[in-house]
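can u do me a favor
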């Protein structure tokens, strides 16, 4: 039976195998002058969610379980972030956004107001991963855009105001305002008139 040693770190017990002690670093030292997260009124933050320092969040935040929000992120009012979603930091999220479960949002992302992101959407910020130096740039999702479930985005993609990205799309180029991206790789098509309305979040 392996032996375990208990530590108390940030008021939570942490257990690890004693023979791993020399190879484990527990916790994270913030930079000098970093500030604890600022969270507005009426938050509902579910179990095992982690919010780093230097994060600013408006009123009425709702999270699922196991949400991660990293440093230098700004989130507006009335935002939902679903279970297991990850926001990697240096990100701006506007007001009245709905981010469903298992969404991955990389560093340097901008999400404007009234945006819907379906479950399991994946955004990227590195066009040539670990091959050449590349300025990391996530997506820009303009006001009122809708992102379907299981869609995947190359880095530095802009989705225009009111545009829709269909479920399962692989988006390799910008989506103009009030257009539809559908397929893999995604083709840009006219958005049907009945869908040319604001998101009802």
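np, heres the sequence
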């Amino acid at each position: 039976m392996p032996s375990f040693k208990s530590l108390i770190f940030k008021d939570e017990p942490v257990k690890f195998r004693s023979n791993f002690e020399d190879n484990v670093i527990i916790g994270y030292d913030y930079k000098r002058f970093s500030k604890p997260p600022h969270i507005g009124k009426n938050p509902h933050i579910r179990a095992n969610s982690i919010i780093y320092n230097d994060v600013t969040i408006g009123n009425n935040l709702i999270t699922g379980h196991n949400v991660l929000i990293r440093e230098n992120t700004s989130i507006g009012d009335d935002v939902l972030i679903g279970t297991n979603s990850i926001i990697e930091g240096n990100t701006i999220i506007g007001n009245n956004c709905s981010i469903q479960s298992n969404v991955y949002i990389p560093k340097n992302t901008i999400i404007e107001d009234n945006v819907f992101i379906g479950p399991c959407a994946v955004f990227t910020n590195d066009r040539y991963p670990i091959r050449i130096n590349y300025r990391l740039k996530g997506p820009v999702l303009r006001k009122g855009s809708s992102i379907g479930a299981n869609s995947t985005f190359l880095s530095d993609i802009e989705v225009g105001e009111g545009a829709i990205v269909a479920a399962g799309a692989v988006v390799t180029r910008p989506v103009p305002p009030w257009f539809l991206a559908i397929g893999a790789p995604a083709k840009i098509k006219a958005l049907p008139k009945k869908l040319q309305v604001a998101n009802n979040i």
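DSSP finds no helices and 24 strands in the chain. hope that helps!!
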